[in-house]
Amino acid sequence: MIEGMSVLDLPNLALECILERLEPSGLCKMACVCTYLRDMCLSDHLWESHMKRRWGRVIGHAAYKEWQLHISTKKESNYFLAGDKGRGLFMGYLSKLWPVMLIYNDGHDDSKKMKISSQPSIDSVVSCYRALETGKFWFPAQVFNRENGHVGFMLSCYDADLSYDSHTDTFQARYPPHGRRAAAIETGVSWDRIRGPPVDTSPNDLHISDCLNDLRPRDHIEIQWRRNKQFPYGWWYGVVGHLEACDGNNIYCHCHESDTVVLEFNQYTPGSRWRHTMINRRYHREEGNEADGFYGGIKKLYHKDEISVATILAC
């Protein structure tokens, strides 16, 4: 850079290209320089990419709706100026951004001169990012549950509210009450066990299946399941199997023409009563009993990333 030249002397396009390559901590450092850089570094379009890369896989539509409800009850001054002792270097920089004081203003356009800065809007992207990183925002998501029990491996996914713990890079999961059991909290939940809810259906409601006519052997599916009528639904991973009368030969297979659909849950050991079930393609709603549980709505897995997560956990 030319001697005596400041980063503020760069054209806006060049400056934006530099800022787009900075990590969150770098953006926060730059935002401490002056008001002009603060406004650029905290702009939504820069933080949207960081939000997507960091949180995109675990934050879904339900979480964004919850965030809007969350911020509507917060006062900006109390929320953003609250201390985050022990939250790490990044949070330390972020907590110092408001207000930003004059440190350099000579020789630049009036538009780039410094003044005391106001804090960013609570509904900005950086505000949401900060709330997630500090664990202040409990967001709805789903947690994969893999237990090695007497019936074998159980692969399922349950709704929970989650809060991030930056010290351990894991989450706390707060599960809703199940039957007469009080709400439970699980700690140490790793990133690979979390996903955003793939459908908007509440865990207490039956998901309306829109894929029943398309189901064929070897298709990957998830189905709602609950232990009894007082429990919320979880999601079980499974595959569509062949009817008993079919030899599995794809050329002569007519299973997709039958009203009966075989669902296989191969994470359970052979002989387990949860190893497979059958549903009626035309009339399926909720089926089951108090002994085996109740099977609800079905969604077909079309995307490779959905299938790969489930199959890896089931191995």
Task: List the SSEs and their pairings.
Blueprint: H1 12-20, H2 24-31, H3 35-41, H4 44-55, H5 61-71, H6 76-81, H7 89-95, H8 125-134, E1 139-149, E2 152-165, E3 170-175, E4 184-189, E5 194-195, E6 220-226, E7 234-241, E8 260-264, E9 276-280, E10 287-289, E11 293-300, H9 304-314
Antiparallel strand pairs: 1-2, 1-5, 2-3, 2-7, 3-4, 6-7, 6-11, 7-8, 8-9, 10-11
Give an overview in words.
The structure is a single chain. With 315 residues, this protein is of the alpha+beta class. It folds into three domains: 7-134, no CATH class; 139-195; 212-314, no CATH class. The protein is built from nine helices and eleven strands. β10 and β11 form a beta hairpin. α2 (24-31) packs antiparallel against α3 (35-41) and α2 packs parallel to α7. Residues 98-118 and 148-154 have low confidence and may be disordered.
- Write down how many β-strands occur, each being a DSSP E stretch of 2 or more residues: 11
> Given the helix and strand composition, which structural class is it?
alpha+beta
Q: What is the beta-strand fraction?
A: 15-25%
Q: Give the SSE string.
A: HHHHHHHHEEEEEEEEEEEH
Main beta sheet: strand number and arrangement? 11 strands, antiparallel
The helicity comes to 25-40%
| Integer average pLDDT | 80
Low-pLDDT residue intervals, each spanning 5 or more residues? 98-118, 148-154
Based on CA atoms alone, the radius of gyration comes out at 26 Å
Q: How many domains make up the coordinates?
A: 3
Count, helices: 9
Gap between N and C termini: 55 Å
- Rough outline: elongated
